[in-house]
Amino acid sequence: MRILVSLFLxxxxxxxxxxxxxxxxxxxxxxxxxxxxxEPAPPPPCGTQPLxxxxxxxxxxxxxxxxxxxxxxxxxxxxxxxxxxxxxxxGSSMGASGQPAVAPEMWIARIAxxxxxAMQGQKVRQAGVxxxxxxFEGWFVPDYAAEQWPEVTTIDGLxxxxxxxxxxxxxxxxxxxxxxxxxGCAIVNRNMLRAYGLHQSFEIxxxxxxxxxxTLIAEAVGRQQPxxxxxxxxxxxxxxxxFRPVTMAAYNRDAFQCLGRAACASPAPTSFAPDPVVTAVxxxxxxxxxxxxxxFSRAHMPFAEMNLVLQQLGEPGAxxxxxxxxxxxxxxxxxxxxxxxxxxP
Length: 345
What we know:
The protein is of the alpha/beta class. The chain is built from 16 helices and ten strands.
């Protein structure tokens, strides 16, 4: 009987002590009825590491860095920092530490060992090409010559019209303005004229330096003289004056390698070699900031646009920063697809 009474009193005391019962049970918080569980916050679009962009010393690369900085700040709310750099130092740093995060204009053939090591170490990726056009060098004729003789944008047309390109009327040879004699392209151009059978039709002019090269072209254009000349892109002079590219044979690697040798015995027709110029992006950006990586995969600047911006950079008072602002203000149809928007609003 005493045992039954004791048990009864124990049950009554336990039931009257809710705090003891609650401390004895581990419970989980429950979501109120009708409410979905909270979703984890999405990762920030610019990642969790500093988003640094390499601003190289030459104008086109510096302009690209400024343009990308403005678009990433305005459309992705990134906190972008620009780092001064050069090809070798930037490539080495990206391969070692993943910083800077982006290099918008990497001429990887010129730092092949550094670039290959960074790729093999899986520290960097090629997000895409910096420019929409793959071949940076070529032969050109002025617009006014192509309008008068449309065929001169072809090799056969140049052969037929070579006498019309002569500086002195009545002579049989036109003028071909090449690059300075101590540049590698001077050898290529000499051999390329032979490869296309134009060495008897055009007199080659090799200026002493870049300034003389530009002066010769500008003077010929000022006189409205038909000329054939070598140049590369992106470059302001190709926007300052109107020019048309000459169509060449398809690129042949072996043929082009021979053209680069002074003793090339049998030059064969080919176009200039494509130069891999890429947007280098650190591997962590793809994992931590995929929206930024996708942006750079779409951001390809056309040569014509960069040529125009470089021309604007030569205007009084212009700076890399002001021409980048002008590009964004005036050329939205170019950059809107980069941020995932239609070309026209």
